[in-house]
Design brief:
The complex is a heterodimer of chains A (about 260) and B (about 270).
Chain A: E1 2-10, E2 16-25, E3 30-34, H1 41-48, E4 56-61, E5 64-65, H2 71-79, E6 81-84, H3 96-101, H4 105-108, H5 110-114, H6 120-132, H7 148-161, E7 166-170, H8 178-195, E8 198-202, H9 206-212, E9 215-220, E10 223-229, H10 235-242
Parallel strand pairs in A: 3-8, 3-9, 6-7, 7-8
Antiparallel strand pairs in A: 1-2, 1-4, 4-5, 9-10
Chain B: H1 2-6, H2 20-36, H3 46-52, H4 57-62, H5 71-102, H6 111-126, H7 129-140, H8 144-168, H9 172-180, H10 185-219, H11 227-236, H12 240-268
The chains are: A alpha/beta (about 260), B mainly alpha (about 270).
Chain lengths: ~260, ~270
């Protein structure tokens, strides 16, 4: 369970990215956040693992305050939260396996990880994560030699290797083409259902949000302006969230493949 | 004309030209004149230099032809020079790696360590290698050891500076990913930053090795071992034709080392 209690974030420049947000995300839910760029979606996601510190209020993950966590405690919280990024954030010069093993660092011990002497179990967990996203044959390939869709799957495998309870995905398909977007979204959906991981995803394509969002919340100017199911969210709702009429750019366009 | 442009916004008037450029140029010329004048400076007189140039010809003639039978006697010191360069590069560049990570805002554990490390590096960099060689020869006596120590300091200063600046510019994405995964500071450096800067690190280390070959010729002159010692001895006895042999040898060695290092660097990228 993730709980926001009157959480606010004001950046040093004075921009208020999150205003007094109160929100509960029960364990196992697949929640999609929609909103224009600058609405506070990224800030909300990064507040969960403390990458962006709150300036007021609190966020708790399974009852533990993120804002008041000591550094060691914060690392422990983060180790239980996997994160997926728009631009993948892989180390492109090294192998796929080394990238996925970054998800085991929290457990590896400093000296062992410095010398790249990972425990056999850690390598096994990393390999299984690669198998789950169907890319294990690329384990010893350099990350830079993979296509965008493959790189994002490595990103997902890195998050899975943490064996987390929560997955955060910040615009995971914004750098991918429409068919690949659906593949990646379905990977995330399958992981959510099979492994029962709470999943929070930022999306700006409304049709994707409707298809994959068990629950959708809308953000505008740092405030929560909609909270409902994907089925309830029609064009009127999205127009309200965006504060303008919708255009073709707001849709991915490609229908979800059958199956 | 004014009515037509009115609706498309107002064109700004041209800003006044800054006087900083011409003033800076004048100051620069004044300083140069001061340095070269015979009243305040070193009396740098180009016409006199040209008329006296031919006087050195007789001395220059003593450099030729090279005394090739001297060549075998240079091999020992030459090998010592290479050995000094290798040892100093290995220790210096190895030490520079952690020092560089502590000296970059991106990878330093805290502000205090960052400032101390930066400060020490600036101090080390302030003195040229030959002065370190002088100090170490005074403290430890003549021989290759003080030379190696001087080169080590010099290598740490050069490689740590270049590498810390490279670390400043790495892609922050993987660092964010590592932090989000609960990785510690040192682990983040090892797995999110180090792979990104590894090719640069190898290139800087090869460059440091090249500089060592060159520098060890100079520091040997103050007694710090290697080919420089021999240069100093032959120079003192005016054996200029022997010196020519050494000069050609250093030229060839530096050229070969540079070729190898260019070849290795190209394979790395």
């Amino acid at each position: 369970m993730i709980e926001f209690e009157q959480a606010s974030v004001t950046y040093p420049g004075g921009v208020q990215a999150l205003k007094n947000l109160t929100l509960q995300i029960p364990a196992g839910q697949m929640m999609v956040i929609v909103g224009l760029s600058g609405a506070g979606k990224s800030t909300l996601i990064r507040a969960v693992n403390g990458l962006v510190p709150l300036t007021d209020g609190d966020v708790t993950v399974d009852g533990v305050s993120v804002r008041h966590a000591r550094p060691k405690q914060l690392r422990e919280i983060r180790s239980r939260i996997g994160m997926i990024f728009q631009t993948f954030n892989l180390v492109r010069r090294t192998t796929v396996l080394n990238n996925v093993l970054m998800g085991r660092l929290h457990d590896a011990g400093t000296l062992r990880s410095m010398l790249a002497m990972y425990k056999h179990e850690d390598v096994e967990i990393a390999m299984q994560a690669l198998e789950r996203v169907g890319i294990v044959e690329k384990a010893y390939v350099r990350a830079s030699n993979l296509s965008g869709g493959q790189q994002q799957r490595v990103g997902i495998a890195r998050a899975l290797a943490q064996q987390p309870k929560i997955i955060l995905a910040d615009e995971p398909v914004a750098s991918l083409d429409p068919p690949t977007s659906h593949v990646v979204m379905r990977d995330l959906q399958r992981i959510n259902r099979e492994l029962k991981m709470t999943t929070i995803i930022n999306l700006h394509f409304l049709d994707l949000a409707k298809v994959y969002g068990e629950r959708i919340i809308g953000m505008r100017n740092g405030e929560l302006v909609y909270d409902g199911t994907g089925a309830q969210a029609d064009e009127h709702v999205f127009r309200d969230i965006y504060g303008r009429s919708l255009t073709a750019d707001d849709m991915l366009g490609a229908p979800a493949p059958a199956g | 004309m004014t009515a037509a442009t009115a609706s498309r916004g107002v064109r700004p008037s041209r800003p006044r030209r800054s006087l900083m450029g011409p003033i800076a140029l004048l100051v620069f010329l004044a300083i140069t004149w001061w340095a070269a004048s015979d009243e305040f400076g070193i009396d740098f007189d180009v016409p006199r230099l040209l008329t006296n140039l031919t006087r050195g010809a007789s001395i220059l003639a003593e450099f030729l032809p090279p005394a090739w039978d001297f060549l075998p006697r240079t091999f020992g010191p030459m090998i010592q020079t290479i050995q000094m360069a290798v040892i100093a590069a290995a220790i210096g560049c190895g030490t520079a790696l952690p020092v560089a990570f502590l000296a970059s805002r991106v990878s330093t554990p805290n502000r205090f360590v960052f400032l101390v490390d930066r400060g020490v590096l600036s101090v080390v960099r302030a003195l040229p290698d030959i002065l370190y060689a002088l100090v170490f020869v005074a403290a430890l006596g003549v021989g290759p050891l003080p030379g190696i120590l001087a080169l080590i300091l010099f290598n740490i200063a050069v490689v740590a500076k270049l590498l810390s600046e490279t670390v400043d510019g790495v892609d922050p994405g993987p660092i964010e990913a590592a932090r989000a995964a609960g990785s510690g500071k040192a682990q983040t450096v090892r797995w999110a930053i180090f792979p990104q800067v590894l090719p640069n690190y190898v290139a800087y280390s090869l460059y440091a090795f090249e500089l060592n070959i060159r520098a060890s010729a100079v520091i040997g002159i103050v007694g710090a071992g290697g080919i420089g010692n021999l240069i100093n001895a032959e120079r003192r006895f005016f054996n200029y034709d022997n010196l020519t042999v050494i000069l050609i040898e250093i030229f060839v060695l530096v050229f070969v080392v540079e070729m190898i290092s260019i070849f290795l660097r190209r394979r790395l990228v």
